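Aim 2 progress update. The chain analyzed this quarter is reproduced below.
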Amino acid sequence: MPYKLLKFGFGREFNESRYFEDVQTPKKTYDVVIIGGGGHGLAAAYYLAKEHGITNVAVLERGYIGGGNTGRNTTIVRSNYLTPEGVKFYDASVKLFEGLSEELDLNMFYSTRGHFTLAHTDSSMRTMRWRAEVNKHVGVDSRVVGRDEIAKACPQMDLDCSGHAAIKGALYHNPGSVARHDAVAWGYARGAANLGVDIIQMTEVQDIDVRNGKVHGVQTSKGYISTGKVLSAVAGFTPRITKMVDIKTPITIHPLQACVTEPMKPWLDTIIVSGSLHVYVSQSSRGELVMGSSLDPYELHSTRSSFDFVEGLTSHIVDMFPFLSNVKVVRQWAGMADLTPDFAPIMGKTEIEGFYLDAGWGTWGFKATPISGKTMAATIANDKAHDLIHSFRLSRFEDYELTGEKGAASVGH
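Predicted structure tokens:
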């Protein structure tokens, strides 16, 4: 252990400053109140202050920052989506991620690995070609590869998957990366606080004051706050917030589970995803295998995890990597995925004046953290949807103008 760390651990005085001020009591009035202290809410607060000069902002979090889906995901960053709207949006996020460590002066452990989406059937290969062409058209580095290139990148994999679902090829996405999720949340929190934003933890929003179709304030567990603008960025808790303003959305909530193994020497240099086997896996900087599966098939507002999940997931992992049969799973968890019918998010203004929505992220919210914050901040500041999120507006469900991203979900749902 480094001497400096020992000295810090046993020292009686700590000279390092706090990441941000621990605000206990909200002010009576804010220009903007953001509900949700995850990556999206904190990023929106940061960009409101940095790019639009709006610093009288409160971020309200019922627990602790990053304690929701931001801290419960598998940290994959990519932009190999199916629709031009989705590819452009997530590509903008990848570009922000690439400079985020320098932007926030905090190591995000951002690591570009390359991302293989495996195809086990002819129909899957057709979808991979479709996605590759859309990606190339938008300028994103994705291409279809065969078994030989997969074997070269990951020689440990059984390409026949123990005879259960032989791999025919894959969509290879060179910019595919991983990042440290906790660092993203804390980096945006510190950046926002340094610019004057109040981050108030352990504070629950109990109601939103709407009169004559306009937001006037929020009632919290720490009292009433007057404000004319409210952003909801609460992922799986979205139905509880939209109920307060009497807005209906097509969002359903499903548990999404994941787990990690005991650490091992580095061997998996890339990110592997299989929609047919419902698995995705990468190796962390600490040597753990970070593994996830598809959404649980039932709607449930819960973060409980199950033995059925880990049993099914690991059986498919062993199909691809038989040598892992004796590796131990040491931790598993779940998040609440807010899913829309077209597998694209809901972002922007709503029918209630002053109420903005950032929701419907399903399994891909973490990778959108920087660009969602940037575009929602611009939308709030200008009271007009940013060009990148026009296709994600809530009204698209009434207008029958859906943005169909189901074919680009991380795993089959």
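The mean pLDDT is 94. The two ends are 44 Å apart (CA to CA). These observations will guide the mutagenesis experiments scheduled for the next reporting period.
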